[in-house]
Amino acid sequence: MSLTESTKDTSISIGLKGRDLLELDDYTTEEIQYLIDLAIEIKAKQKNGEVYQPLKGKTIGLIFEKSSTRTRVSFEVGMFQLGGHALFLSKNDIQLGRGETIADTAGVMSRYLDGIMIRTFGHDKVVDLAKYASIPVINGLSDLAHPCQVLADYQTIYEHKGVLKGLKLAYVSDGNNMAHSLMIGGAKLGVHVSVASPEGYEPDPQVVASAQEIAKSTGAIIEVVRDPKDAVKDADVIYSDVWASMGFEEEQKAREIAFASYQVDEALAAHAKPDYLFMHCLPAHRGEEVSEGVIDGKHSVIFDQAENRLHAQKALMAALMG
């Protein structure tokens, strides 16, 4: 499907309006591709200085129980550029952090807002918020999934490679929410995803099984391996993440030992294709999960990724709330 065909598919556009985004397995391959194409189209409008404000007069509430640089800035700036207003709500700003039920919070916010983004710990809170809200709920990150980041990631790969289906992405790090969403997204888009994690830090087996089931219809290969070299072999993309995500800081020393042989450095990257892309969702710890030579080298597209959080989320908000 071409960019023009995808973004003009009104049936997909209508089908997305009013929906939630909890994880990418909620969406079809065509819907995910539509969002990527729309993000690229919206990005081009901004680069050309074209005003695009489909959400003029609308408001989104941004609930943050986990702090963030990219998520907060990209959602606030994105909503402003779309003509609307974003309201930042920390856990200390709302009664949800003081014992009010999710059902009551969702009911009240649905009367005030046009959409909700939540960045939190337990995925069950995202699910419950969507259950009780009558407006779109977007998962800005939970311990289980990070679909907004992965939409931007696959947009970035698509822009650089011109194709997604048939590519190989090697993820070398903790089998966390990033690994989960990359596998689900890859399975939906036909991207082979090979995850390398040490024993005890593998992705959730249920998520792996779900991604492998989805992959049957797209031809993608989803696998979990132990040796990083096996994952990186002939990869088009190498992806790394911090070894100790937010909430696991007390495990830092133990994880440094467990992940010692999982650093993405020049020697490991040599097993990938010569034109590989290096990706990282940031923040990064140079000299830990990735060497300075790789993350700051010619293959790195980390700032393209970071920028595309803005465009991918603008596409998502426009599609769900427009």
Brief characterization of the structure:
This protein has 14 helices and 9 strands.
How does this structure look, described?
With 322 residues, this protein is of the alpha/beta class. The protein has helices at residues 3-7, 10-16, 29-47, 70-81, 102-112, 123-132, 147-161, 177-189, 205-215, 228-232, 252-258, 266-269, 292-295, 302-321, and strands at 59-64, 85-90, 115-119, 137-141, 168-172, 192-196, 222-225, 237-240, 277-280. The chain has a five-stranded parallel β-sheet. The protein has a four-stranded parallel β-sheet with strand order 2-1-3-4, with helices on both faces. Helix 8 (177-189) links the parallel strand 5 and strand 6. The longest helix has 20 residues, at 302-321. L-ornithine binds at residues 177, 241, 245-246. It is an enzyme of class 2 (transferase). Carbamoyl phosphate binds at residues 68-71, 95, 119, 146-149, 281-282, 309. Its main location: cytoplasm.
Provide the descriptors you would attach to this structure in a database record.
single chain, 322 residues, alpha/beta, five-stranded parallel β-sheet, four-stranded parallel β-sheet, 14 helices, 44% helix, disordered N terminus, Orn/put_carbamltrans, Asp/Orn_carbamoyltranf_P-bd, EC 2.1.3.3, transferase
